[in-house]
Amino acid sequence: MLFNGFAQGIQFGIIYHQQMGAPVDGNWWISDRFWQANPWKADITSFAWDESGKHLYIGTSEVYGDGGLFKLDLYKKTFIRLFPKPGSEPALSTEIIEINRKNGNPKVKLMLVNETTKIVIIPDE
Q1: Dihedral angle at the C-alpha atoms of 52, 57, 7, 65, nearest 10 degrees?
Q2: Alpha-carbon distance 89 to 4, whole Å?
Q3: From CA 57, how far away is CA 34, in angstroms rounded?
Q4: How far is Cα 38 from Cα 120, in angstroms, rounded to an integer?
Q5: What's the pTM?
Q6: Contact indicator for 92, 113 with CB cutoff of 8 Å
Q7: Per-residue buried b or exposed e for 21-58, using 16+ beta carbons within 10 Å of the residue's own CB
Q8: Using CA atoms, how far apart are residues 106 and 48, in angstroms rounded to an integer?
Q9: Model confidence over 20-77: pLDDT tens digits?
């Protein structure tokens, strides 16, 4: 679900809307069907599904968000940061341009703190 915060950017949350056959499905509970987490929930620039539909990639902006790129495991309700890696140059913004349907790697437009823009494949090929 996307929430338009206008001047505060676009916020993002995930809703488990299918019927559950048991009170628990993965890390989802029948009484807890909404998921948002820092640092990927705020100031969304883009999002894209992998081919399996099990993972979601989210790009963010640094204005109200994090500026990073994240891969969410929807069943487990976990996420990892794909960019920037710890110790690397921070990003002002990451924007997903496309997803490679063969290997799932996202092609991303990066705006770095030093105001350079570059296109990268995550993970680097």
Answers
A1: 150
A2: 29
A3: 18
A4: 24
A5: 0.85
A6: yes
A7: eeeeeeebeeeeeebeeeebbbbbbbbbebeeeebbbb
A8: 8
A9: 889 999 999 999 999 999 999 999 999 998 888 889 999 999 888 889 999 999 999 9
pLDDT digits (tens, 9 = 90+) for 7-22: 778 899 999 999 988 9
Diameter over CA atoms, the chain:
50
Please report the DSSP string for 71-104 in residue order: EEETTTTEEEEEESPTTSPPEEEEEEEEE-TTT-
If one counts every other C-beta atom within 10 angstroms of the C-beta of residue 115, the result is: 7
In single-letter form, the type of residue at position 32 comes to: D
Look at residue 8 and give its three-state secondary structure.
Answer: helix
